[in-house]
Amino acid sequence: MNRLSPDGGFDGNGNSESLATPLLLPQRSLTNSTSQVALVGANVCPIESLDYEIAENDVFKQDWRSRGKKQMFQYLFMKWSLCFLVGLIVSLIGFFNNLAVENIAGLKFVVTSNMMLAGRSKMAFFVFSASNMILTLFACLITAFIAPAAAGSGIPEVKAYLNGVDAPGILSLRTLFVKVVGSITAVSASLVVGKAGPMVHTGACVASLLSQGGSKKYGLTWKWLRFFKNDRDRRDLVTCGSAAGIAAAFRAPVGGVLFALEEMASWWRSALLWRSFFATAVVAIVLRALIDVCLSGKCGLFGKGGLIMFDVYSANITYHLADIPSVLLLGVMGGILGSFYNFLLEKVLRVYNYINEKGTVYKILLACLISLFTSCLLFGVPWLGTCQPCPPDALEACPTIGRSGNYKKFQCSSGHYNDLASLIFNTNDDAIRNLFSRNTDSEFHASSVLVFFLICCVLSILSYGIVAPVGLFVPVIVTGASYGRFVGMLFGSRPHSSLNHGLYAVLGAASFLGGSMRMTVSLCVILLELTNNLLLLPLIMLVLLISKTVADAFNGNIYDLIMKAKGLPYLEAHAEPYMRQLTVADVLSGPLWTFHGVEKVGTIIHVLRITRHNGFPIVDERSEDDSRVLSGLILRAHLIVLLKRKDAFMSTPVERGGGGAEFSAADFAKRGSGNGDTIDDLQISAEEMEMYVDLRPFTNASPYTVVETMSLAKALVLFRQLGLRHLLVIPKISNVSSLFSCLI
């Protein structure tokens, strides 16, 4: 809080007495330059915290008592129905996303390949680079001008939202539209980006929009939806949406639930586990049904290989103790490379931020340059590769004529293929399938795989920061798979080794994911569901544990680094060691603005205008001993409702009976994200400014409070685990007046 002059407040009778009450007795200097707490919120984006705590005022209690079995059934039925709708809609979007990408990118590669076969290499490059440029430009234009919040993967924003931070526009309808369309065009533009992160953001947007509680503008005011006009239920449904997004991206329902639990959610309970599992199960069933339709050839170029399903390693595998050292090496190197990848990406994003600050034109120009550079590399580098004769025992046509396959002809003569083009001149999904494929140990040169690894690493870092909906999940997988396959070529050809190069690619992807994203359980299950082989479980567990442990010694996970770079506050689950040495009284700032139980309208208007606080303690004075009593906490949004309705205005400062009977819980229900009324929307006359309001019926009489001597570490754990926005700090000596404060 910023320190305000105490002369700016008024008492309940309009006298010049400050409502900025004294705080706890100062125990330190007001300037806390040595503690990390002083840096929190220094340069953050315009955000608003979310109210997950239930305001137990008289209006809420009356509404809760009036609910019968019918209302309870409606509430439970709608919770499960909305989870079903989230799963259904997200699965349809995921299917449409992949259908569009596979056909757009496939058509581009087919046309370019046909030109190559006809000997028109220059025209092929022009068509390839021009189509990539147009797709990239379209994705950037709609992102920059329609929904800038849709840029990036969206996982850091959703993670911050579930932590209690509501950034403007991150879950709006426009963001959803741009996220879907922009992700399709960006991935189809052959940028080394993924669509898994945007699918998580898409699922969160769908869940948030469904949980808005209806819309008067569009006539969606079904009374059954009224139960969800609060941040608490929206948070739960957004968690289910993020799980459904991963399930739709990788067709990994269990992995989606674990991803939401391990990486996204800051607050979890068993009931939420069941609902998120139900949503991901709906996703899996719908996708399976739609894929069966596409397998019959009704989806154009889409259908071969399934929906981002790398079902390429279903053979039985065996491994021995002699294979463990090479697996350990994969884990250690994956942790080092993953942390270095995060370091480079953070530096590049800082440079991009400097460029983007110059204006929209520079953002678009940067994206176009990245697209042109990508096209030159993807089309030019395969010319450096050597042509190899097709293997006589190939399991598919060689050379590959068309979009996908292990044996890209490119510039080679009949009966030969270009192994470098099979990796580079392809979609990311097909490149991963080629790297993961079994019985292909002799199909790729080690130099080709190394070049592909370096290109993927560079292009994925350069492509992520553009103003378009792009993700990191798939680029990290393809980069790790190429690194793992290269290591397999170096160590996997030993006489006693039973691990082939495809298995090394899977383990390399796991190690790179663990080193970059620092997840273990969810990544393990996602990779198992991707490869459809439970026998890989021990090895994947081993490399994930090692890579995460090694990488943690260098820096944080990639999403936390991006979240910090974007200025999104995030409250960690654990307390820092220095917090054990501080009490909550050490980190308070002021002044604290309070109201009396019966307050003057003009005073409320004045305080709301000069402060940005969301909650205000209600403090009364006992006539017997002049001691001060904490009656509770009232929210800014509830005060604005009272001032807007004017039904609670009184001409005299007396306590009003009835407990706010003229109001209902629906009057105080929170509307969609960022759509609430502000103090500037109110029209209050001079006569009404002299009236009074009894705030007690609308005050949360049971706010969470702690003693001033509580350690900061304990307060943080309490604040985080309960999902609080306000925590009141009260004095240890109860007979000392005006010695309490409020952490907001």
UniProtKB/TrEMBL annotation:
Q: Which Pfam families match?
A: Voltage_CLC
Question: Quick check: keyword Ubl conjugation in the entry?
Answer: no
Molecular function GO terms recorded: voltage-gated chloride channel activity
* Membrane topology field: Multi-pass membrane protein
- The transmembrane residues are 75-96, 123-147, 272-291, 327-344, 364-385, 444-466, 472-491, 503-528, 534-554
Where would you find this protein in the cell?
Membrane
Keywords tagged on the record = CBS domain, Chloride, Chloride channel, Ion channel, Ion transport, Membrane, Repeat, Transmembrane, Transmembrane helix, Transport, Voltage-gated channel
Question: What's one GO-annotated cellular component?
Answer: plant-type vacuole membrane
Identify its protein family: Belongs to the chloride channel (TC 2.A.49) family.
Name of the protein in question: Chloride channel-like protein CLC-g
**Species annotation:** Linum tenue
The major lineage groups are: Eukaryota, Viridiplantae, Streptophyta, Embryophyta, Tracheophyta
